[in-house]
């Protein structure tokens, strides 16, 4: 055990808890608890969305993939993240901000009816739990390099702290803790890049790649078949993610939402260029390193080769990236669970929205923790979560923002077709069944085809019933 890292971990959790509790307020409505009263200026939307979007996959997986495969790693998370925010800013921010809804399922009911609402709500809750679980898995794997504490205990400690301030302060506490996360991840990523750049060069990386036989290392489109499918899966899922809707709805105006989104896109682009650069520049620094069975490369940088000062900064930067996405996923997931599941089953819960919002926060955290104990592959877990939304909800979700009339059959068959395939894929990935289905991301086009076919068939049925 490295006692210094134990103190950093405990100190960071304590600081995070303190910031989260300081900004907690007494709240009476779901809008106050989950949307911060819809008063967030563009600057807060920017900081919170950037911190919440730049998580474990962004920093740990992207650096590892860039080290192993080169510049093409930008497609895995970086390109879809930037593309998603631009799409939201240009096409959907104004429309989403003005909608009279709290969640996607509210709009689903308006366009497709209550049956489809219930199906969509199940997919959305499932997605948010898996997204939070992916961050917990990353935290446990990263900290395993530094702390002589079991995987489960590590997850439980971090989840408990996040649970306390998110349940008590709602979105307001999440947003203000994101200021801390944002500053640390920007500082840590920037410092790590300049550390690598000061010790290696792009020419040295090219020579090391050639020596290792890494063909296409500096080709952005190398292995684009796989990377492009990942990018497609993430872009479609994140465009209709409850997190994006929550931040846009929480902004004080459509203009504030657009400003926040535009600044987020620019910052994310810079961050992903840096993390890909870190991975590539580390190739000549660690010529004998193999990815198989190794700890994340960023953990190796923090754990020794960067020295104690930079190592400590990188350590807390990774914690910031992971925990900012974890609390965001838990808070947004609790909104979906309380509004779209609990309130539908128990209508009286709408009279005590904050109480039930806190119950939902506990439930989402517990579900994510259970999933994280099962799945310990960061990219696989976040990929499975994106598959749920991409295949089960993107087509009806994007269409409903433009539909004028109710189309219940279109929504039902789209969610049943795409969502049903996503469930089968999840069961296959879990090892519960073995039907020979393609693994994610190769399963994405098939699931989308099922969803699209169901939507078009349902649309034809709806038009015959009600032109």
What does this structure look like?
The chain has 467 residues and is mainly alpha-helical. Helix content is 77%, strand content 0%. It is globular and about 65 Å long.
Briefly say what this structure is:
Helix content is 77%, strand content 0%. The chain is mostly helical.
Element order: H for helix, E for strand: HHHHHHHHHHHHHHHHHHH
Would you give the CATH topology?
A: Sodium/glucose cotransporter
Separation of termini?
68 Å
Mean pLDDT figure: 89
Strand fraction band? under 5%
Q: Provide the number of structural domains.
A: 1
Largest sheet: none
What is the element layout, followed by pairings?
Elements: H1 3-22, H2 30-35, H3 42-53, H4 56-69, H5 78-98, H6 104-112, H7 114-143, H8 151-199, H9 202-211, H10 224-239, H11 242-250, H12 254-281, H13 297-305, H14 308-345, H15 353-374, H16 378-392, H17 394-399, H18 408-430, H19 444-465
Helix pairs in contact: 1-8, 1-14, 3-8, 3-12, 3-14, 4-12, 4-14, 5-10, 5-11, 5-12, 6-7, 7-8, 7-14, 7-15, 7-16, 7-18, 8-12, 8-14, 8-15, 10-16, 13-14, 14-15, 16-18, 16-19, 18-19
Keywords:
single chain; globular; about 475 residues; 19 helices; mainly alpha; Sodium/glucose cotransporter
